[in-house]
Request: fold
Amino acid sequence: MSVRVFSILLCTITVHTLLGSIVVKAQDNAFPESKSSTTLALVGGRVIDGFGGKPLENTVVLISENSIAAVGKISEIGIPKTAKIIDTNGMTVLPGLWDSHGHLFHIGEGTPTDFPNRYKDRSIELMAIVAEINLMAGITSFRDTGGPLKPQLTLREEIKTGKRIGPRLFLAGPILRQGDRNKSINNDDYLIANTKEAKKMVTEVANQGADQIKVYGFWDLDILSEVTSTAHSLNLGVDADVRHIEAYRTAIRAGVDRLHHVFTADSLSDYSEDDLRLLVRGEKPSGSGPSANILRGPYIIPTIEMRASYARAFRFPEIIDHPNFKRAYPPDIYKYFRDSLNNINSIPWGIGAEERVKVAKNKLKRFVAKGGREQLVAGCDSGSPLNFHSPLAREIQHLSEAGLTPMEAIQSATLRAAQMQGVSDKLGSISVGKIADIIVVDGDPLTDISLLRTNVAHVIKDGVIIR
Ligand SMILES: [Zn+2]
Reply:
């Protein structure tokens, strides 16, 4: 398959440390066993290792098989004669990026309900295109937060065996909602009516091979608590997309690990001080002792870009005719995509987008000022209407505009994302023994974070140069 360099890329980064919430282990399926036999040496550039400290200048990063074998100053590291050398002078070497909220089976079309149904039979072909676009943008790990699990597992296997190229995939599979299945018109819905069903459904989704449990909508505390405790007992984290402050309160009390679309998808009204405190500190802040200031709230993935992408497209509708779309997708899919965007102003989620972005950023700033910076993780709802793969670097930029330092913003899409997934022992940093998922950015993203969108010079995944 040809390597498509696709960059209508609308991306971003952020975040930081291990929180008090439960650390979960994703399944090891996301870790391919393929190993490159060449030793690689990235020589000369600056390294941002993901841990948030001062960057290291004039470095060598040695990659052997699929792991990082050494990181240090040129003067300290011997480069094997047989190594393949990549000159990184004038560039920044950093961990591969994570999109912690995306959709492989959406391409930014204006009709997100129709698209996956209509093209069900071509899901692997289409998701493979999206996966490749993301990897070429420097996204080496992708958390899909709701999509068809079976074909996604097949795609992951194909990436693993080298048949396709794409990021490391962490998959949610079917989305769970509270409701009565007997009253549902759609048999595919994963509806849960009581605690017994909660246990059964979560176990079923876990058995299908999901890496995380995704819940949506309003829940009763006891039922959602059963969802989280079952998921945790199976070593899985719970991702909640609940879109209302009332539902956030329940989700936090039920012990969910990650809250999505906070600030962005709920109402325009501001949060109270109490609610902000709950978001930052969770349900049981410790009141005294040395841990009094330890954060206990869930990880937060604001997905500001979910709204900002509309605002930008309304200001510049020309974007939908960009030739990259025609290049990326098969002709019939391109036609469908383009037709679905004929009347972009009618897409419901876009209504009032400009104002909503402003309100969301203000709420986010308050959250950061209250102490929530270490909870923020970059995810962009990539694939949702007008949110063309990949908007991640723009999300990283939103987080930095809301008060994270550029370094923290980078962490939100590297180490912190890996910590959130429970895989920071393998991913998310440039340190000895970690899997070599690395990008090289031409220039200094700490001065100009938008370089993460425009200047990705190299992408290395599993020790293999992809770009
Ligand atoms: Zn989403």
About this structure: The pocket of zinc ion is lined by residues 101, 103, 145, 381, 384 (CB under 6 Å).
